[in-house]
Amino acid sequence: MIYFKGTTSSFQKSVSTRRSWKNLLLLPVCIGLLAATPAIAQNDDSDDELWTSSNDRELDELLHKILEEDDGDDEVPTKVRAPKVHSKLLTTYGAKQALRWKINKTAFLEGYVDQGIGALDSPYKPPTSKFAGGILGNYLLGGFTITGGLDLKRNYSDVYADWDGLLDRTFNLGVSRKFNLTKDLAFAPSLRQSSVRSDKSSKDLSKLDLSLPLSYALDKQWTLKVLTVGISSQTYTNRAQEQTDKTWSYSTGLAYKWSEKSSFDVTLSREDRYSNQSSAEYTRTTIMPKYEYKISPTSSLGIAIGYETHVNNTEEFSRWLIVPKIQLRIDI
């Protein structure tokens, strides 16, 4: 989920953003949500108090012009515009359908199709869409869960408008295991190696993800997600710059099971990316409450409403997040 810089004016960026959201009116959950209105920058006119009469003002303006034509060694006070403030709202949609074949008690194969309407990291660019499909295998071996799969993905502009003409192929292999440290304390580390091959060679990358979650069951309904530490390293294998990104993430939260069909949880997370290319670095902090309802033992509807603060080398912004999602699965 889930995830915007340019040379046009901020006002043009805001208009472009609102145009892009018009396409989302076809989705009921988006109605009435896109009310982001840019605030108009205000000039700082406090320096007008330096002039007590019109004659003094004319003399001061003349002196200012003379100093501007000098060699620049003297510091001349100048007006500084207050930064523009942007209201931002990001709505993403996800829908996944899967058909799972249970080979036996320890293994299954799953074919799936995954659609998503999301957005880039900048709130000033229009959203993008994806259409993905693939196959996933799962095998239990001595308490370990081994997974592997192939994912094929196409990206589109706006809401399934123009295809970018590229097909991305992702191969992944992972292993995980749950350890019950005590009756209530559980530790479930996982490791995954991924390789992306794209029709555009500059997108090719090799990625390694390590997740270390620790949780504590307070009772049958409440679970404390004590701490999850994530470590990710990815290298773009066909770039002249030899770009390598390393991402550290930390999260904590609380989950509540209302019934056999419904649950609620809230997560607070922070993500820091470091890279040998400064343009790829960022820091993101997110708080995300989520509600999920099971419409069957294998299918669910969910919605998350959160708030995110994002900082990179060129801008800092905060925005609200609304993320509805549906997952449908049939077991055969």
Secondary-structure element series: HHEEEEEEEEEEEEEEEE
Calculate Rg over CA atoms. Answer: 26 Å
**Corresponding CATH superfamily:** monomeric porin ompg
CATH class: Mainly Beta
Oligomer: single chain
CATH architecture title = Beta Barrel
Strand order of the largest sheet: 2-3-4-5-6-9-10-11-12-13-14-15-16
CATH topology: Porin
CA distance, first residue to last residue: 28 Å
Number of strands: 16
| Bulk shape | globular
Biggest sheet layout:
13 strands, mixed, barrel
Provide an overview of this structure.
The protein has 332 residues and is mainly beta. It has one domain (90-331): monomeric porin ompg (Porin, Beta Barrel). 8% of the residues lie in helices and 55% in strands. The chain has two helices and 16 strands. Strands 2-3-4-5-6-9-10-11-12-13-14-15-16 form a 13-stranded mixed beta barrel. Strand 15 (299-312) and strand 16 (316-331) form a beta hairpin. The longest helix is centred in the first third of the chain and has 15 residues, at 54-68. The chain is globular and about 50 Å long.
